[in-house]
Structures
1.
Amino acid sequence: DLYRKVFVFRKDPSDAYVVLRAKLERPLQNFTVCLRSYTDLTRPHGLFSYAAKAQDNEIPLFKPKPSEYRFYVGGRSVTFRVPEGRGDWEHVCASWESATGIAGFWLNGKPWPRKGLQRGYTGGAEVAILPGQE
């Protein structure tokens, strides 16, 4: 349970990270991640990665520029264009459902148009989760 926990990366995120290990009872078919982020980075950076034993970065959430979020599932991605931040905390949620292939995205509680992504795909069950890192 990471509720009310904060990770502070004092160095460049490329060499600072946290790893959470999980072993699911069956392959992943639905996924939702929510997080709050606060940074002054303007360069591309990862916010979250679900890395399976068979595939690194199986489900990453990436921010390539201040006005864009990219959500990947199994090597394919959808992009959500957002207003550029004002230096405040950003609350982000991304979800995906295998049966429909629907990917959802919310920024600060506001839903963005849903998009199609990897219908029928199943994710790995033995995983490493990296918050704040790709």
2.
Amino acid sequence: ESGCNENCDNRIMHYTCGKNCPAGEMCGNKSLWKRKQPPLKVAFTGSRGFGLFATQDISEGDFVIDYRGEVIALSTFYERCNAEYAASKNYYALAYDQDEVIDAAAKGNEARFINHGCQSNLEVRKVSTLGEGVEEFEVGMWASRDIAAGEELCYDYNFDSFAAATATECRCGAPNCIGYLGR
């Protein structure tokens, strides 16, 4: 009667409720793209290109944004990196599973502008869809600590250079910055 909430067993186990949830429209454990997210703003950061910023305070543990894009084979993504994306050297991708990535370059949302940070304020979580008959996932970002309005959102990329075996200079500016990303 009260609907699903933070204590919902499905949420605790990292499953979203499916269309057969007994709470119906009262379900608080809906697909990530249906969840309320805080207001965010894309802005130019300088040496790191564009970034995504909080426009109001966000509390630790709050859902921030889902990561959308086209789920493609890793081999297809490598081909795109070497052909379509080579000139720009910007990659908007996140690992989906061992053999696939979410390519957010053309079909992504503003989450693709979240930059790497050695002292990150976001945690990436993969959430399974329950009761839909297929093994699918959604990927979202949750606040790993309190985030102040105006602060840039970032997560640790655990970087792997998709297109080259070269390292990329890290420009996050964190006191614990590792200096370079990649191999």
3.
Amino acid sequence: QMADPFLYHTGERSRYGCLGHEVQIEHIKAYVCRPSFFTDKAVIVIHDIFGWMFPDIRYIVDLIAGHGYITICPDFFKGTDPWKTTDHWADFADWMKDHDPMKVDKEADVVLKYLKEQCGAQKIGIVGFSWGGMAVHHLMLKNPQITAGVSLYGIIRDSEERYDLLNPTFFIFGEKDHTISYDQITLLEEKLRQYCKVAYKIKVYPGQVHGFAQLKPEDMKPHDKPYIEEARKDMIDWIKLFI
């Protein structure tokens, strides 16, 4: 029996009125939000296990777009069901086999092509949460078209080549995340120091559990709010630094 890895209750969420719209790109649906002015800078947001329609992730897309980026969250599950709050954690390992965060290359290429050819994007960054954080880590090792990345609470754990990042990457973690041990973060730090030839950063936010950084303002607990806001500002600052 696998323990529920999320310490917050994902079912208790306020609704969210989205600012963007949905598009179809080849075999993938995506949620897009654009700033009110022209820009050639874009950010891909990779959702967590709850998928591209989850209110939190759409809020994040709109938030990043508000900083002046064409922002897009593609459905990396390609129309298959995301994990649901009613699903049983005993089935999670099997579900993950069919939803591998390291098999996102084809979809990433489709979205990169769309951003370059249809939206005029010259520089493209990537941000991902949990499942999406693992996907970001993978893509920052594999895809030189992505200028910079932010991986939030997702680590590729079982690959020897996970430290030779192609472009600047920022890893965000919560101190109380019981899906990622402190030892794993320490190992990541040691190995990046050894092998990584580009800019990178690791930051652990005090007292924060898995999934902390994507909560909407009305769903934040008062004592977590400063850390959530700090993580979000750090995320945006990293993107602005390179894109």
